[in-house]
Design a protein that fits this description.
Blueprint (H helix, E strand, L loop, with lengths): L12 H7 L7 E6 L2 E6 L7 H9 L9 H14 L1
Antiparallel strand pairs: 1-2
Amino acid sequence: MRITSKGQVTIPRAIRERYGFMPETDVEFVEQDGWIGIQRTDSSKPHAIDEVIANLTGSGSGALTTDEIMELTRSYSDDA
């Protein structure tokens, strides 16, 4: 990774997604024991529900196929 002439770097996608660095996120740099880190500022931290949803993404068991789920949904709505 290289710093541009404007002092910019690209945060890798996996890190942006894992830590919630989305567009317009306010961040700050933290220096400690010779290391520099980046963290969201308090005003940019997601709400608790956003963190729950992010942690649940991709956590399905896969026991049912999409077609089976759609059939269940359709049969439920027909009963109503």
